[in-house]
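Hi there,

I know you've been waiting on this one. I reran it after we fixed the sequence typo, so this is the corrected version. Both the input and the resulting structure follow.
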Amino acid sequence: MSALPADLDTWLDDNWDPDLTVGEWWERLGTSGWAAPHWPTEAFGMGLSNAEAAQVRRVFKERGVLGPPGGLGLLLAGPTIYTHGTPEQVQRHLPDILCGRRAWCQLFSEPVAGSDLAGLQTRAERDGDEYRVNGQKVWTSAGHVADLGMLIARTDPDAPKHRGITWFVLDMHQPGLDVRPLRELTGHALFNEVFLTDVAAREADIVGGLGNGWSVTKTTLAFERAGLGAGSSGAGESSAYPGTVAGHLERRAGDFVKPPSAKRAPSLSVDPDRVVELARARGAATDPLVRQCLARLHTEQQIARYMVLRNKDLRARRSEVPGMGNIAKLRMSAMFRQVRELGLELLGARGMLHDYGDGSGPATGLPADLEDRARATTAVALWSPAPSIYGGTDEVQRNILAERILGLPRDSSDDTTLPFREVPRNV
């Protein structure tokens, strides 16, 4: 651990150049192992602990270096492929992820299946050495800038619903794909709905084996919940985005580095310190009820931090807390709600206003020193229902903890034994 910063500093001295293009810099970073140092060495990482990987990210930030390519490739696709993929798939996809050559999206959720992800109805039917995919996906983050997608589709409707699913790598640049943005309450469009009509999925791009997609999907979801619960987005300290669509790879790397003093846009994240600052600025920090809410939020934040530290320590000893990812995600959802309720109470009637533009104009009419905090608070308030839904709803997390961790009985159902085509559905 103590030698890590010196090794990294030496490498950065020899390799970082802000005048490189983003693509050139990410190529150096991805082939060195520093892009995802917590990945296994056989997956082009360094096998470092999560704590050491966090230290690497801090060094990048402190030195004003463009971080590794973010997005769902680094957060979900890569870890899933090195866990379940063939050596050929690891060699084919992981370097493109680490070097930012391809951007990924997640084609899991469906409008009819809702929280019952295994009830998906998108079908993939064999056509020679390919599959023809038809169906609809929704809540697809970054689908409009993705080169590849993590697709789960039903390949055997005669098998029970959990056993007839297959996990594919899908080329997003092909006919038959219609990606439509979904505008949110915040004014942004981070998500999309995707319609698939006779889209081709290759047999060589099946990850984890035909019909074994549910097992692979659970791995993807485990990485997602762990990342969300820890507050991770998988992104570097920059606004550069990987892949061929966003158009960032040919631009100057240094232009995407944000200096420490730079004004940052309000983020959709839980930030108790921001709420404390708002309470002080509004003259409410001495109010007993406000202080009680602030203390509760601080306590939740510290419990979350201790949970992460405890899990890191256990992992270092090849152990873990069962259900930790599910618990962490539930706590994150609760903290978003607490920030929403307290933040809007502090803003009063001004909390009903929100800047839906580029963030440059006043939204609440407050003094300039309060405007950023107020804008961030209203953005989090509008966003707050989302964390209890994406990555598996709060109800799904509680069911998992009840059934798999506590051993409580499942609700009575035939869907684990009936062929999927015979399972009753709403449509």
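Quick highlight: The beta strands are 104-107, 123-127, 130-137, 148-154, 165-171, 177-182, 191-202.

Best,
R. S.
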